Amino acid sequence: xxxxxxxxxxxxxxxxxxxxxxxxxxxxxxxxxxxxxxxxxxxxxxxxxxxxxxxxxxxxxxxxxxxxxxxxxxxxxxxxxxxxxxxxxxxxxxxxxxxxxxxxxxxxxxxxxxxxxxxxxxxxxxxxxxxxxxxxxxxxxxxxxxxxxxxxxxxxxxxxxxxxxxxxxxxxxxxxxxxxxxxxxxxxxxxxxxxxxxxxxxxxxxxxxxxxxxxxxxxxxxxxxxxxxxxxxxxxxxxxxxxxxxxxxxxxxxxxxxxxxxxxxxxxxxxxxxxxxxxxxxxxxxxxxxxxxxxxxxxxxxxxxxxxxxxxxxxxxxxxxxxxxxxxxxxxxxxxxxxxxxxxxxxxxxxxxxxxxxxxxxxxxxxxxxxxxxxxxxxxxxx
Length: 383
Fold this sequence. Notes:
Organism: Botryotinia narcissicola
Membrane topology: Multi-pass membrane protein
Family: Belongs to the SAT4 family.
Protein name: Rhodopsin domain-containing protein
Radius of gyration: 33 Å
Largest sheet: 2 strands, antiparallel
Order of helices and strands: HHHHHHHHHHHHHHHHEE
GO cellular component, one term: membrane
Strand order of the largest sheet: 1-2
């Protein structure tokens, strides 16, 4: 960074020259704060919901938590990582719309330090959570198990940034948070592309590792495809990490890095949150089967829907009447709904002229198809 004479007002000097020749806009320039908010907030809310459902379901059904469950709790650092992005509101602009004073104050250096520290658990825990899930749920054979261990080892590289940040982005002994700290911290720029490459590699591995296990399971084709689809959702994380890597490299090259920074952040949050959501998918299935489907509300809703569908089935097939017979108040009372979710025809003795009535009733409720054919002969003697 260039040196300026003492007394120079750095709040009126832009960080870089505008390549288009326009004067700097320090008052109301375009910025990318909205990008970080619109991408991060919905995904963090969804991740928060599914993580809470995952923890509560596993405690209720299995009465214990596993390693991958604990790893999913890294949503806290994820949220802080996203929250700290708003501390860079005044720098989420083009370089030429940022005054030099904005990056030389102590608070900016402290935010950079916190941001770099939080990036390690944000990425490291999210990748580890889904790898531990694969190891626990599928219990893969030795070759695939060692592949999972290799991916876990690669994720440890994320944590290298913590000691590097402490060494280069903090004041030295008896030092202060000043411009010297910010300039020294710029040397960590190489960790951006490094994290981008690691994210792409691990996302590809997470996408491919479960597939041979899934298609080797003794399941029908439909179930296999459904299970594979859950992990294929991780392709969105791969797309996000690829875009993030592009902007990390571009930012490292020093071309309008403050404008590319929010894009990196938005993609990073999206990548981490999608990974969390994918790792919670099995617990969401357990939540549906063990909690929702057994609730009184779901049972009531299911019964109401079944009755409605059964009534429509009878009306559609007989034109509103049971074939071969008119429904009188007496005869309609013979058609009752049993506790086993099907219809029974009860017989009653009727005195009067001898008649023969044949009723063939077919009904197809929603959940399981069945048919009932009931032939009833009512003999009545004529006195």
